Amino acid sequence: MISILISTIAGIICGWGYYATGGTWGAYIAGLIGAFLAFFLINRKVQKPLNEIIMKVQGKLQEASETVQKKVNHFQNKPGGNQTAFMKTVEKIQKDATVEALTYLVEAEKYYKWNFMIEKQIETMRFQLNFQIKNFDEVDKYLDKVMLFDPSVVTMKMARLYKKDSLKKKEGEDSAKALKEWEVTKTFRKGSGRMKGDKATMLYATYAWMLIKGGFHEEALATLVEGQKKTADEVMTKNIERLRNDKPKSFSNVKYGEIWYALYLEEPPKQKQKVVRQTARNAGRPF
Q1: What is d(CA 139, CA 111) in angstroms, rounded to the nearest whole number?
Q2: pLDDT band at residue 82, thresholds of 50, 70 and 90?
């Protein structure tokens, strides 16, 4: 990368300059300081326009969120509306905004040559945004490129890997070995290592759900017990009780609501349409 190359050259120049003025071992320190300072200044210069692009993306998504909230408020104040049509309208607003936000990220590509971490950062954002609008063909292109720094990114990657390979427990198979080699497990372990508190909750809940679906009930219980040491979560506690009472079919993550359904592993329940009963009070007087 250009920033590393320039920093290295700067370090050599600083070290040689110090040596040329009569310095000895201190030339190494001068070189390191020069390289570090050059790297810091270059990345600071590059980061400014990059942050502007990211802010532009976030601004577009925020704008769409505010528009959706206004429509939700309007819809709730007018009972009897077509909920299916309303949801399609909301989804279209969100999708259109996300698609437009993705085009902004193209501007960031010219900065890839300066620092390889910039490419990782942008590709991770593309992964998230495409996942949110269910553009899974694009999502899968970035599976091996995302940075697992955020719990939502980790669970998204786990969800896609699970959809591509939902491991099932087989009679006579070494379950421990099969799980260890499963890509979902590798992602979970890599992503959950540094997560604690609320950040760890969905990681353990999601992985446990996948284990339950595959017939790994004991492993799911062990996972939740491990997770409980990191996060005091009521839903997790209830699921532990269900598994200890040998009720794996009662295991459920639905209490996590939208955060859970956003992984597209389960469909949210359809909300019943509210019926406004016509009475003498609200029917109005005929003329």
Answers
A1: 22
A2: confident
